[in-house]
Amino acid sequence: MASFTLTATLPKFSSIGATVVRRSLWSSRAFVTAAPRPLQATAAQQDASEAYDKASDAVKQGTKEVKKTGEDMKDKAASTTEQVTQKTKDVASKVSETAQDLTEKAKQTVQEAWETAKDTSQKMKDTVVGKAEESKEDIKEHAKIVERSMNTKN
């Protein structure tokens, strides 16, 4: 009969938690389960919430640091790229100037060589023509001598 008394009084304590009454033919025992105490659950929940907030803040801070580091690296890379680009432009400009100077010098050298060749050709022509004139005069003189000598023998 004790089991009936427990079963009858349990509905009065239903605010405690879920109640399971189990009766079997062989045993008249009743099993009662109770929900965890609300104060304990709230304290554990608060601890978990605080730990979550701390972890969330740490992740946000880490993300900000990584982002800042990435931006710094990007700025440094951009600065280095600009410096390399400027130096490349400077070197290209110097190479272009040097190439122009070399082209001008080569042009001048070719012009001087052409003038020298023309002068040499003219000197050779004058020399050959002068020798030819001398030879022509010599031949005319020898021809006159030969003609006189042939006329005297006849």
From TrEMBL:
Coiled-coil residue windows: none
UniProt-annotated stretches for the region Disordered: 35-92, 113-139
Record's compositionally biased regions (Basic and acidic residues): 51-77, 115-139
UniProt name for this protein: Uncharacterized protein
Top-rank taxon: Eukaryota
